[in-house]
Amino acid sequence: MKKLSILCVLFFALSGCKISLNGASTVGMKTVNVQVFENNAPLVVPYLSSQFTEELKTRIRNQTSLSITQNDPDGVFSGNITGYSITPEAITDNQNPVAGANRLTISVNVKYTNNINPKQSFEKSFERYKVFKLVGSIQSMEQGLIKDVTAQLTEDIFNAAFAQW
Fold first, then answer.
1. How many Cβ atoms from other residues are within 10 Å of residue 159's Cβ?
2. Residue 75 belongs to a domain with what CATH number?
3. Per the CB 3.0–4.6 Å rule, which of 3, 41, 102, 145 could disulfide with 84?
4. What CA–CA distance (Å, rounded) separates 156 from 94?
5. In angstroms, rounded to a whole number, what is the distance separating the alpha carbons of residues 34 and 59?
6. pLDDT tens, 113-149?
7. Would you say 63 and 55 are in contact if contact means Cβ atoms under 8 Å apart?
8. Close Cβ partners of 141 (under 8 Å, ≥ 6 residues apart)
9. DSSP assignment letter at 120
């Protein structure tokens, strides 16, 4: 009976904290602003900036109780896309070089400002890639590949901001 009482006390003590099951901690925060990530990569894909920005907003909405706002936010995400490239990953034939696999790489620079707990603020670069085998044209695969890499990047950024493990 005593163990049950202790568990109940712990449950109610911790239930006041804003910690979700995915490990995200937004203690004291209610709002966040995600500014548009400009595409400053040498190779520019027209929709990458908006797709990346919206993907980050969606991840925050889906995994926290934070509201996205423009006015007086508790946290601010800003930055830019610094790199976008598609390069050969493997050569399949020494005599007649042909790319057997390719790599799509996206790099972003992110500045996160936590106005509630400034010690959690950071500015750093993130880079992720996906290796793929070209089937058809790159244009037919590019949007799906970008979505996959963007999902990896937004997860890394989200974890850096909210999952201080």
1. 14
2. 3.30.160.150
3. 41
4. 37
5. 11
6. 999 999 999 999 999 999 998 888 888 899 999 999 9
7. no
8. 132, 134, 135
9. G
- The count of structural domains within the chain is 1
75, 29 contact by CB (below 8 A): yes
Tokens encoding 149: 């890499």
Burial of 154 (0-12, 13-18, 19+ CB in 10 A): buried
Kindly list the distances between the CA atom of residue 117 and the CA atoms of 25, 27, 68, 75, 153, in Å, as whole numbers in the listed order: 12, 9, 18, 9, 23
Amino acid at 59: R
Token reading at 132:
């793929």
Question: What is the amino acid identity at position 49?
Answer: S
Domain that holds residue 153: 2-162
C-alpha gyration radius of the chain: 20
The token pair that represents 125 in the structure block: 């670069």
Q: What does the angle CA 71 – CA 72 – CA 77 come to, to the nearest 5 degrees? A: 90
pLDDT tens digits along 75-105: 999 999 999 999 988 766 665 555 578 999 9
**Contact 111/79 with Cβ under 8 angstroms?**
yes
What is the C-alpha separation between 160 and 87, in angstroms, rounded? 28
Task: Round to whole Å and give the CA distance between 29 and 55.
Answer: 20
